Amino acid sequence: MMLYSDEDFLLLSGIQHMAFCERQWALIHLEQIWAENVRTVEGKQLHDRADDPFKDESRKKLRVVRSMPIISHALGLRGIADVVEFHQSKINIEGETCHLENREGWWRPVPIEYKRGRPKPDDRDAVQLCAQAMALEEMLQVSISSGFLFYGKTKHRELVTLDLRLRQHTIELSIRMHQLAREGLTPKAQKGKHCSQCSLTEYCQPYWMLRHRPVEDYLSRMCRVEVDDL
Questions:
Q1: Measuring CA to CA, how many Å separate 191 from each of 52, 204, 208, 210, 226?
Q2: Residue 49 pLDDT
Q3: pLDDT in tens, 43-85
Q4: In angstroms, rounded to a whole number, what is the distance separating the alpha carbons of residues 126 and 108?
Q5: Positive or negative CA dihedral for 37, 38, 39, 42?
Q6: Terminal CA-to-CA distance of the chain, rounded, Å?
Q7: Using one digit for the tens of pLDDT, what is the confidence trace for 145-172?
Q8: Calculated CA dihedral for residues 9, 79, 125, 82, nearest 10 degrees
Q9: What is the DSSP letter of 188?
Q10: What is the pLDDT of residue 53?
Q11: Where are the domains of the chain?
């Protein structure tokens, strides 16, 4: 797998935007457009509670690390993990446990991503969790088979199995992110049910784009004809 250099790294949190809508990802991460709606405000408040670095917890067999910096050279992504739980193991389970600084024994990492609302019908939240797990695997030299999504509305953890299909989808999304970043390309709007949930509808204008696409396509074709005639 290709390893990215430091200047190529993108925000890991953006993979959720890419899974939701690649135009949304480009508007936020290439054009630097952002708008807050109720969903984003509530989500930020929930993350603020999870990301307080002064609220790390230590119990006899559990170490809870909040706001943990993570990086994946394979995915070319860097970011912050909301919560990583380290569960102590009596023995070293090869490929699953690691050492922690100033801690005795062996520890098994489990990533937990905090989200507002309820579980979604697609895997946009799961791919972000998967990217975090893949970054932790690189950093700690372990294999992580599962993690959790915690939803603010249900106050419940949802177990996510990090299987091959989810990992492959995560890799494909990260590749697409880097492709768009290299090209500086913002994809055209694609109207869908997800548009009503997007905080960038005013900037994206998917309905206007679709109504005017025939004109846009005509002008694009005319420009190509003129260039070909030169």
A1: 37, 10, 10, 8, 31
A2: 53
A3: 555 555 555 544 567 777 999 999 999 999 999 999 999 999 9
A4: 20
A5: positive
A6: 43
A7: 999 999 999 999 999 999 999 999 999 9
A8: 170
A9: P
A10: 47
A11: 6-187, 189-230
For residues 174 and 116, give the distance between their C-alpha atoms in angstroms, rounded to a whole number.
Answer: 23
Q: Does domain 6-187 bear CATH number 3.90.1150?
A: no
Contact 143, 96 (CB under 8 A): yes
Dist. CA 167–CA 127, nearest whole Å? 8
Cβ proximity of 46 and 152 under 8 Å: yes
Residues whose CB is less than 8 angstroms from the CB of residue 36 and which lie 6 or more positions away in sequence, other chains included: 44, 199
**Strand locations in 54-145 (E):** 57-58, 62-72, 77-89, 106-115
Q: Tokens representing 19?
A: 């899974």
Say how far apart CA 57 and CA 23 lie, in whole Å: 39
